[in-house]
Structures are given as C-alpha cells and as structure tokens.
Fold this protein.
Amino acid sequence: AYAQAIVEHRNDLYASVLFQANQQLKLGLNARQPMVNGRLRAFTPSLFAERRLLQQDRLSLSWRAQLNRSFRLPTLNDRYWNPGGNLDLVAETGYGLDNSLKLETKGERLQSSSSLSYFHQLVDNWIIWIPGGSDVDEEGNPISFWFPDNVRRVQAQGLSLRQELSYALADRWQLSLLLAWRYTSTVNKEALNRFF
C-alpha cells in the first residue's frame, strides 16, 4: 500500500530488423527507447546472430548468440511501498551475453528438442530487497520490514539445460515431456553501502 496516490506514465518504442544473410545465417537488431513521464531514458539495443550448423532430413543443430544492453527503472513498489519504499533508488543498467546450442530431431512419431544455454550479465545498481527496516505501527507496536536498496555492481552468470520430447499417439493426441535445469551464480563485485 502506498501512503499517497502515485501516477507515472511509462511508454516504450520498439523497433526490430531481421536480416536473412543466407539459408544458414540470420542476423538481427532490436532497439527499445523507454520514456517515463515524457522524459527519454536509456536506449537499450540488442544484437543477435543465429546460425544453422547442421541441417539434415530429420536432424538440425543451431547456435544463437545475443549481446544486449539492459535498463530497469525502480518500480512504484520499489520506491513508494509503505513501509519500506526507497525514493533514493537509481535505475539498473548493464550488459548481457547469451549463447545457446539447440539440437532437434524428428521421427515418424517422436520429436526431440535439446538445448544448452550460457548467460553472463554485468549489472550496475542492481535493486534488491533486504530485511532490516524497523518502525512502529499505528498502535505503537514495533514492526520490521524489508526494503529495497541498490548493489553497486553485480555479475550474474549461469547455465541452463532443456529437453523436450513429444510423441504422437494418434492423429489428435500427443504426449509431451519437458525437463529443465538451471544453475545461476550471482556475485556482488563492488559494494555500494554497508549492507553489501
């Protein structure tokens, strides 16, 4: 709940260009320009490339990479939640890299899709909610709460595996199985205040 009514107008302009260089290679550029209350914020482009490494009748292997700039403003809850909001928060900014390999097979009835992905992000002013706030309620009782703060520089990286199997039982029936695993490591590289 907020202590007062808050109004904020957020708009984003998106543009995307896709270039099919040949049968095996696609290149793309995505662009986002956010505007908050009539003020332009950080421009966030991303570039990607996708290459088909192997293509056979029932088997394909592809690689995809993406490089991007990120920007995230503090939300209304981050700034105005009562108790705990923090009006001194600054926007998160950063850069990221994603790489993935995807293997697909197709049989008469069985289809399989396997992917392995790696990501790496470096984010400045990461917003995190931490415990430790204290106050008193309307009746004078002590209360504790969580509040958001910025972490100066954070490195996040990880791996993910995904396996999907589909088996056609009949013309209109299909049985599917999806398995997914993800490992993420997030490390504070540079502290901003006494909490980190």
Q: What stands out?
A: The chain is about 5% helix and 70% strand. The chain has a mean pLDDT of 92. The longest strand covers residues 110-136. Residues 76-80 form the longest helix (5 residues).
